């Protein structure tokens, strides 16, 4: 687990004991970015609506007999799309009959597919955009680019 004290279910936790879980475990061993992949059930079918914090409240240094200005944090509702990456690795049955270890032969054949899936997921997390590739999930930068930001406050001289 990449995050200390994280109590959210990870992608591997959602699929333990299943065939998919074995694949996710292999992929996460090869791609550490998947250690931070939090899995949650979508609340809208093919998308997930949630709130993200877009701004922190302003704070002020206090002095005796002076008030503190009020402020608040800002939040924005976001709809994240979902998607999955899949591939099919096949080995000819005749080759498996000739192989001394059929399971090793299957794994050897599947290894490039797993690496390709790893690279696609890692690339997608940072670069995909549903406007240009509708079948993919939305990446972090396009998701955060739409968030309005405010100018940083100018430093105060003491």
Explain briefly what this protein structure is.
The protein has 158 residues and is an alpha+beta fold.
What do you see in this structure?
By secondary structure, the chain is of the alpha+beta class. The protein has a domain at 1-40. The chain is built from five helices and two strands. It has helices at 11-14, 19-30, 93-98, 102-127, 140-145; strands at residues 47-55, 74-81. Strands 1-2 form a two-stranded antiparallel sheet. Helix 2 (19-30) crosses helix 4. The model has no long low-confidence stretch (mean pLDDT 76).
Features:
alpha+beta; 5 helices; 158 residues; two-stranded antiparallel sheet
Q: How helix-rich are the residues, as a percent range?
A: 25-40%
How many β strands by DSSP?
2
Instruction: Characterize the main sheet.
Output: 2 strands, antiparallel
Radius of gyration: 23 Å
How far apart lie the N and C ends?
44 Å
Q: What is the overall number of helices? A: 5
The run of helices and strands is HHEEHHH
Mean pLDDT: 76
The protein's oligomeric status is: single chain
In the predicted model, the low-confidence regions spanning at least 5 consecutive residues are none
Alpha-beta content class:
alpha+beta
Proportion of beta-strand residues: 5-15%
Global outline: elongated
Strand order of the largest sheet: 1-2
